[in-house]
Specification:
Layout (H helix, E strand, L loop, with lengths): L1 E2 L7 E4 L9 E4 L5 E2 L3 H15 L3 E4 L6 H8 L4 E6 L2 H14 L4 E4 L2 H5 L7 E6 L8 H8 L3 E12 L11 E7 L3 E7 L25
Parallel strand pairs: 5-6, 5-8, 6-7, 8-9
Antiparallel strand pairs: 1-4, 2-3, 9-11, 10-11
Length: 211
Amino acid sequence: MNQRSKPRPPGSVRIIAGHLRGSKLPVPDRPGLRPTSDRVRETLFNWLQPVLRGARVLDLFAGTGALGFEAASRGAGEVVLVERDPGLAAGLREQATRLKAGLRVENADALAWLARPPAGRYDLVFLDPPFEAGLWQAAAVALGPWLALGALIYVETPRNASPNLPAGWQRHRQGQTRDVEFALYRTAAGPTAPGADTLGPESTPQGDRQE
């Protein structure tokens, strides 16, 4: 989820592609809650499409679930959404059931959830915490034991935020809009991990569109 200073009225965000294409997810009226825009999601998933099928995916600050549901729609093997707000988490479970999305929702604080012994390692993580909370560094450090070799991590921040991320994360794709910067990082790859050249072509969205 993205954050901004003023709340937006309730609305919806659509799933762009895959077997859930065109399905809409509600955007509850919460201060600062805004889903990642259509343009940014389209760019991100163009990057990810070559490596997404069958991947284990973690949407760490799920919010509206726009990123996690999009990954499930496009063929991810496992998707886990972590959301602290009980109302948002309940809504995500309801949408997962309605759409038969095959994903799991955890109602938990993301940092507390990451402090547990890892139940498995993830190939792709969406790291888009509330902007005002400044949780990028703490979450990135806590993610270490949860990441597979060569894991991809998507990070979204306000413009010019420059979060302090682990030195071992290599940036392979980046883009920006009027309000946000976003990038795709990769951890050190093992012998069987897909290389950076398997990612989709780099492109930057022109402007921002919301529904």
